[in-house]
Amino acid sequence: MQGLVSRIAIGVFGLLTIAMLLLAVFDERGALAVQHRRQELDNLNKDIEKAEEDNDRYRKTIEDLRSNPDEIERRAREEFNLVREGEVIIKLPETAAPAKKDQPATDKESPNTQK
Hints:
By secondary structure, the protein is mostly helical.
């Protein structure tokens, strides 16, 4: 009888240990959840760094547009197509891509086509 009780006690202890390990891993505050939260935190930190870099770039652009006449002129020329007095802008029409010579002739282009 004593051997049966000790075996039951060991079995219960083993089951409780397994249950505690499963909770430690799969619980809402377990190891997997902690790892997931850590990954989310890393992603948010990367987003914050990117936003800070964008903000620094925008601050520099704003400062240039407020105080740098060369930057103001460059932007006016590029974005608004503005010119100085006496300058002339010549715009060439965009051309379509040339046809490839390697392409086979179609029925309309082929001189040997009989109808």
